[in-house]
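Weekly sync, protein design subgroup
Attendees: M.S., D.O., the rotation student, P.L. (late)

Item 1: inverse folding check
M.S. brought a backbone from last month's batch and wanted to see whether the design step gives back something sensible before we order anything. D.O. pointed out we never logged the input encoding, so this time it goes straight into the notes. Structure tokens as presented (537 positions):
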């Protein structure tokens, strides 16, 4: 039994019921029965990771408060007192005798449900609660008891049961907390936030529910509020690194960069900090224009995590901003050694070389980037795409010709045929004509299909028809302004056409696109961390 702290209200059983119910609604409590004439309600905090105890206490109290005076027999009071003191089997024996005389008494059925639930018999408890609700559908104590078990079992009935409970008693933090969890599990963060906001008294030390609340706030763009929730979690679990990271990330997204650095710094100073930690720290430092510190942070990130593309991209971009081009080239070269098949690193190096007017070297990097990532790649089309992936273009061509004959207006098939013919090469003018016709069929079938325009432009470039390639690639960029491959190819075509100012302009655009894409991927990686809740404690 809990000691009576910090607030005890002595409520005469039949004269102070309204006052007792008002106290019950303010928070969690446990009911004590020192005598048959009065009721004590004691405020207390729930256990950190369970809603169950508070529900059981609320249910027991509401059951007692609802008893009509004529039914407040000595046996009933003894059963309630046994329940309040944890003597569940004794309470069950008394209640069984009472129910023999009054089998439809909903208050007795509810008390029996409480005793069965506490005795570890949820199936029987739920049957008792449902029996009570069959007699009194709006009886709050039975509603809450049944809803708790149905919630734990993820029974679809729990949702409606909880909604009915809050329609009867709107200020019901425990019911709101459970509804918030159910909304979170069906990925409805808007509803989850509304319920969690009403449930805060029941969530004071409930770390899994607080985590869900913080995650939903972050997901919905409410970073300042998310930071408050993660701060509360961090106070509860000061040694939990995931909570500290999420607090720092929420502060960063809220624009509180100095606070974010203070929170993340203990994680960054560990011997082997996580990649995401160093990335976030560098972003916060850059947001405060603390460039030398950010440079050192990113260098450390590259050294500790040599196979993370984003650190090389961020560091190279910072070098370009500071006009340290040689250092940027060295960093990207090191990245390519560690991650040789990264189209993004080759593309970034091509951008830097183009800005240094080293166009031939830049062209080679862009070509390599294009080979590694042909852009808006289609889905697999059976054996043909498999053969192309392993460089057996000649073997894929007959398959694609047959497919194109069967589907002459399929832009993906025609584009793949054109690409295979281009890659195979050595087929003379007839091969050129067949590839051009296939690609023209593709862009006719779908004028917005950027991949087809890019391959058509590459075809004209391959045969040194630069003046014809430029307008085709310009059309590709218009159709897909954010398609890196379209911009790559247009930049190469403009370079061969001698239009160097436009080439430099596109190099800057490519740099912006690469950095933006990398930022988006970094943010997604961070959000995945936010979603990974720690285990319940």
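Designed sequence read out in the meeting:
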């Amino acid at each position: 039994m809990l000691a009576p702290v910090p607030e005890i209200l002595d409520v005469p059983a039949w004269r102070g019921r309204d006052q007792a119910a008002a106290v019950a609604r303010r928070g969690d409590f446990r009911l004590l029965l020192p005598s048959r004439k009065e009721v004590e309600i004691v405020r207390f905090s729930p256990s950190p990771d369970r809603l169950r105890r508070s529900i059981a206490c609320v249910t027991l109290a509401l059951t007692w408060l609802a008893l009509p005076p004529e039914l407040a027999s000595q046996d009933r009071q003894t059963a309630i007192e046994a329940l309040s003191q944890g003597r569940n089997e004794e309470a069950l024996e008394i209640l069984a005798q009472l129910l023999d005389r009054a089998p439809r008494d909903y208050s007795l059925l509810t008390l029996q449900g409480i005793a069965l639930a506490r005795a570890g018999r949820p199936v029987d408890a739920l049957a008792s609660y449902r029996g009570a609700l069959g007699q009194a559908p709006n009886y709050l104590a039975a509603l809450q008891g049944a809803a708790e078990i149905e919630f734990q079992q993820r029974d679809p009935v729990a949702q409606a049961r909880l909604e009915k409970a809050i329609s009867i008693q709107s200020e019901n933090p425990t019911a709101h907390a459970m509804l918030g969890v159910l909304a979170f599990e069906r990925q409805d963060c808007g509803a989850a936030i509304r319920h969690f906001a009403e449930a805060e008294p029941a969530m004071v030390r409930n770390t899994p529910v607080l985590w869900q609340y913080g995650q939903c706030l972050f997901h919905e763009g409410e970073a300042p509020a998310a930071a408050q929730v993660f701060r509360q979690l961090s106070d509860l679990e000061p040694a939990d690194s995931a909570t500290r990271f999420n607090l720092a990330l929420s502060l960063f997204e809220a624009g509180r960069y100095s606070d974010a650095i203070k929170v993340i710094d203990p994680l960054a100073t560990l011997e082997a900090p996580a990649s995401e930690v160093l990335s976030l720290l560098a972003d916060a430092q850059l947001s405060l224009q603390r460039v030398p510190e950010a440079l050192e942070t990113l260098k450390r990130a590259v050294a500790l995590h040599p196979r993370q593309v984003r650190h090389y991209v961020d560091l190279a971009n910072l070098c370009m901003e500071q006009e340290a081009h040689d250092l940027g080239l060295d960093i990207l070269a090191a990245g390519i050694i560690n991650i040789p098949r990264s189209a993004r690193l080759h593309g970034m190096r091509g951008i830097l070389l183009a800005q240094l007017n080293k166009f031939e070297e830049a062209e080679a990097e862009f070509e390599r980037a294009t080979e590694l990532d042909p852009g808006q790649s289609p889905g697999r089309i059976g054996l043909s795409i498999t053969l192309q992936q392993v460089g057996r273009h000649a073997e894929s061509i007959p398959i694609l010709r047959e497919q194109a004959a069967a589907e002459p207006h399929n832009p993906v098939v025609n584009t793949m045929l054109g690409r295979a013919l281009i890659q195979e090469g050595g087929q003379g003018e007839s091969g050129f004509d067949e590839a051009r016709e296939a690609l023209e069929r593709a862009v006719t079938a779908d004028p917005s299909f950027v991949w087809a325009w890019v391959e058509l432009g590459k075809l004209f470039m391959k045969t040194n028809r630069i003046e014809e390639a430029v307008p085709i690639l310009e059309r590709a960029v218009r159709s897909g302004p954010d398609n890196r491959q379209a911009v790559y190819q247009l930049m190469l075509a403009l370079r061969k056409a001698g239009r160097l100012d436009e080439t430099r302009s596109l190099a800057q655009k490519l740099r912006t696109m690469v950095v933006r894409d990398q930022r988006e991927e970094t943010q997604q990686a961070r959000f995945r961390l936010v979603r990974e809740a720690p285990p319940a404690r």
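Discussion: The two ends are 23 Å apart (CA to CA). The longest strand covers residues 29-35.
Action: P.L. to compare against the previous round before Friday.
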